[in-house]
Amino acid sequence: MLIITIKQGKEKSLLAGEPWIYASAIEKVDGKPNEKMKAGGTAIVQSSSTKFLARAAYNSKSQIRARVWTFDEGEPVDHALIKRRVKAALAKSAAAAKKARPDQVVKLVNAEADNLPGLLVEQYGGKEGYLICEFQAAGVDAWKVPIVQTLIAETGCRNVYERADELVRKGEGLPFVEGALAGDEPPDEVPLTENGVKFALDLKTGERYKFR
């Protein structure tokens, strides 16, 4: 298990609930070399006096060295936690998803706001449509399989596509990957209506083009 020790005085932001830990706040990282190099591995975060502060996803290649999963010492980071977080995010967005028309995009998971740092999920077309996922941090990238499994089980939507922002992934030291994670890829263009304005939408890139 990796152990991140925070510099004295730098733990204040964590105690205030800040979920990001920058390289400049870290005194040292203890653990096996292969664990330190594994992007998204879980680490215990402690103060300079060895007091428990959090459990976080560590990434040696990002300026945001760690992103907090939990401040609760009794809460392990495992499949059950990931499943709970995804289900809670979907429950929060359920009302918007239910009333959305088939030609609208609904945000189902919103990263840190849903305690899933770096994960963005949108839905288009309801159950028969597509889930578009972006894994913008190493922690959620490492838990990609259970995240997708839970999304499919909870929404009933079987077409899941991974969209990627190359610059964001590069900044995290993650490979640029995109494509279908389950079911079919979305078509090159679908109709989209926002605030009464009609667009053509490329779900794979997020690009919108106004109809003429």
Explain the overall architecture:
Residues 2-91 form the PUA domain. Its main location: cytoplasm. InterPro entries: PUA (IPR002478), PUA-like_sf (IPR015947), PUA_sf (IPR036974), RlmI-like_PUA (IPR041532). This is SAM-dependent methyltransferase. It is found in: Cytoplasm. It is a single chain. This protein has a six-stranded mixed beta sheet with strand order 2-6-5-4-1-3. The chain has a five-stranded mixed beta sheet with strand order 7-8-9-10-11. It contains six helices and 14 strands. The chain has helices at 12-15, 33-37, 79-99, 138-142, 144-155, 166-171; strands at 2-6, 20-22, 26-30, 41-46, 52-58, 64-70, 105-110, 119-124, 130-135, 160-162, 179-182, 190-194, 197-202, 207-210. The model has no long low-confidence stretch (mean pLDDT 94). A hairpin with an 8-residue loop joins strand 7 and strand 8 (119-124). It is an alpha+beta fold and 212 residues long. 25% of the residues lie in helices and 34% in strands. Helix 3 packs parallel to helix 5.
Poorly predicted ranges (pLDDT <50, ≥5 residues)? Answer: none
Structural class: alpha+beta
Rough outline = elongated
State the distance separating the first and last CA atoms: 57 Å
Please indicate the percent range of residues in DSSP E strands (runs of 2 or more): 25-35%
Topology as a string of helices (H) and strands (E): EHEEHEEEHEEEHHEHEEEE
Helix content: 25-40%
State the strand order across the main sheet: 2-6-5-4-1-3
Radius of gyration: 19 Å
Number of strands: 14
Oligomer: single chain
Largest sheet: 6 strands, mixed
Number of helices, counting only DSSP H or I runs of 4 residues or more = 6
- Average pLDDT reading: 94
